């Protein structure tokens, strides 16, 4: 009896020591990698974008490494390039929006007077331009260029590490999944079921909704350009590419997101037509028919159902995309939906069991 008790105490102390070691190791890893949380979440997002393509390649007898390399080169790198181009276009078009042009737009929308809360002066719209104008020395330019170069090098390094992380996730996903299920959570358990539901939800959010937003951006840019080609003289949609990006991002707002953008453009074009030529009022009408009726109908009927599915209420997705960046920063646009998926599935699958017990 005493021997068994001593053996049990020794085993308990051994397990406790390993748990303490694991906890300390986890704390060290979390503390060390805390600055890379955004890039890790971005890597998980890219993994879900790449995974369907890699799986199709493996089904066609490509090896795991070959499928991962092809996916990284032909899907992920172009996709990241598109994201960078879209962000650059938005920044450049915002920068090229001169203060005088901004003031013209505001005056068109507010013909009775510009509200005091609307910034129109150049120093209010472009604080950096004002700072550079007041101190146009060689040293200030060099300092600014050094900061930009430092930020670029750091971002490039983090992006390189992220792409390596995505490569190994795509290549070794089957082995990682099997190890996690067999060694950590067990097969056909409630935890296994919950993990599979999270995986399916993240695939729907990250892959489906991302493709939906990008498709809307591209198609909106094409339609805006075509509409400008038939626009009356002096009556054109301003900042086409920037508005296309805004249209795609506004799609996360259910029912009214894109309509807010369309309505703002219609009001701007209508006021401009009234001030210049009443005959040109046909153009705002045509714009709304093309974008608000035909294009939106295609999105609701074909694009959104085929790409994004209906796993989660659109209201939850809206708050995840809007509150994520506010709460966590730039990577919140990826971390917010991830947390939303985990919380929603927990409430749906596990919380009722915890409150009411196992069903009989």
Automatic annotation (TrEMBL):
Endpoints of the signal sequence: none
Keyword annotations: Membrane, Transmembrane, Transmembrane helix
Membrane-crossing residue ranges in chain numbering: 12-30, 66-92, 148-170, 206-227, 233-253, 260-276, 282-303, 315-347
Pfam families found in the cross-reference section: AI-2E_transport
Gene Ontology CC: membrane
Cellular localization per UniProt: Membrane
Family according to the record: Belongs to the autoinducer-2 exporter (AI-2E) (TC 2.A.86) family.
Protein name, per record: Permease
Annotated organism of origin: Natronorubrum sulfidifaciens JCM 14089
